[in-house]
Structure formats: structure tokens, C-alpha cells
Amino acid sequence: MTHSLLQRQDHEGVATLMLSRPDAYNSLSMELMQALHAELDAIADDLTIRCVVIKGSGKGFCAGHDLKQMLGEGEEDYYRCTFQTCAGLMQRIVSLAVPVIAQVHGVATAAGCQLVATADLAVAADNARFATPGVNIGLFCSTPMVALSRAVQPKHAMELLLTGELINAQRAYEIGLVNRLVPESDLDQAVAELAGKIASKSRRTLQIGKQAFQRQRELPLSDAYAACSEVMVENMLTADAQEGIDAFINKRKPEWTHR
């Protein structure tokens, strides 16, 4: 797929989606959010894809919403549509059958930080920076708060939200916002290796696991165990689980059918 705002490249089961508004730090205009959502919908039906990487072009990952566009419209209905569109995009990432990795360089602020927090995994350059700075301009980052408060401990989330200050990559790693830090020159390779490991797995198994992870998080302990016990039964009955177990017993490489 080639789009003026979003570029897609597929390689060995990994779809890399590059936000392509470098002059605006890849800020999430309405058009970019719609393009990204549409591409994720296409990936949901593409059984050849087993992992997605979201990255930014130019000097940074994503600077959040396009405030110039929003201020230019200046109408309540447009504001509502913008935030509903963003909420739908983030939920699409969560509901996608395959894991999503955020590849972060430069800055990830406001809805850009929300995008990092929403992704299943995040790998960042060791000089990247993160913030939810809405409070500084009178616009509290309430929708980024939804993802952030689910990705890190409450007090860490509140500190970011209340101060609006930038934190460095090391701090983002310490609070659990990102999984790994690497030198910026190694970022592409590090993400490719991680995505490749994931893409080597059964798509069906990844889907079952991701969906179960999201579902059990909101359940009380006993209900979570009950739900995941049923997921294990469902998983055991799949063709890929039977193949994988047989391959393990017989010391051979499994041949996935993604069923």
C-alpha cells in the first residue's frame, strides 16, 4: 500500500506502517488516523501478516493530534469526531488479531505517547523522549490517559499527566512504557529482529493469546482463571497446537497452517 500519509511495507509476515507527515512530526490529522485505521482493517483480513510495526518518518515518532487542524475547524462536532476517531483507532490496535510494536525515535507526545502505550510492545531509541503535555496548554490529555493508565502504574501516569514534562527513554523504560532501549542507529534492526521472532509463530496462536490477555486483565482473579482455562481448551483443539506439540515431542520444526 502506498498512501501520501502512510507507507506500508510487508516482509516475511511483518507489516511495517510508517506515519508519513515528517514536516508535522507525524501529528495525527483526521486523514492520517483514518488511513491508519483503514490499513489495520486490511491487515486484520490478511492472513499472511503475523506482526505489525508502527513507526514515524523524519525526526520523531508522533507529536499527537494536529492542533493546527483542530483549531482551524473550531467546532464542537469536529472536536468530538476527532477524539472519537482517535479512540476508535486505539481500540482497533488493541482488538487486532496480531501484535503491534511501536518503534519510537525522537519524540512521542500526547496522542503519540498514547499510541506507544496502546501498542502491545514498544522499542525505543535511547535518546527518545515522551510526554503528555496537554496540561501545559490548557487541554488535559484525557484520552491519552486511558492508554497510559493501563500501561504504567497510576502514580507514574499521573505524574506525566499533571506535569506535562518530557521524560527520557530510560525513565520510560523504568516505568514500563517501553520494553527495550537501543541506540537509534540500531533501532530498525532491533525492531526487525523482535518482529521476526513474533512473526515466526502461529498467527492463530498469537490471536488467541492477545485476545485472552486483553480480556482477562479486567476480570477478578477467579474469573480470569476460569476464562483462560477455557481459552487453553480452545487453543489445544487448534490444528497449530496439535502440530506444535507433535513437533516439540519429535524434535522438529513446526509447520504452521495458522488454524
Question: Can you characterise this structure?
Answer:
- It is a single chain.
- This protein has eleven helices and nine strands.
- The protein has 259 residues and is an alpha/beta fold.
- A six-stranded mixed sheet has the order 1-2-3-4-6-9, with helices on both faces. The chain has a three-stranded mixed sheet with strand order 5-7-8.
- Helix 1 (30-44) runs parallel beside helix 3 (76-95).
Which keywords apply here?
alpha/beta; 2-enoyl-CoA Hydratase, Chain A, domain 1; Lyase 2-enoyl-coa Hydratase, Chain  A, domain 2; 6-stranded mixed beta sheet; 3-stranded mixed beta sheet
- Share of residues in helices: 40-55%
General form: globular
Structural class: alpha/beta
SSE run: EEHEHHEEHEEHHEHEHHHH
Tell me the total number of β-strands.
9
Strand order of the largest sheet: 1-2-3-4-6-9
The total tally of domains equals: 2
Mean pLDDT: 96
CATH homologous superfamily of the largest domain? 2-enoyl-CoA Hydratase, Chain A, domain 1
**What about the largest sheet?**
6 strands, mixed
What CATH architecture of the largest domain would you give?
Answer: Alpha-Beta Complex
What is the CATH level 1 assignment of the largest domain? Alpha Beta
- β-strand percent reads 15-25%
End-to-end separation in angstroms reads 26 Å
CATH fold-level assignment of the largest domain: 2-enoyl-CoA Hydratase, Chain A, domain 1
Q: Can you count the helices? A: 11
Unreliable stretches covering 5 or more consecutive residues: none
> Radius of gyration in whole Å, from Cα?
19 Å
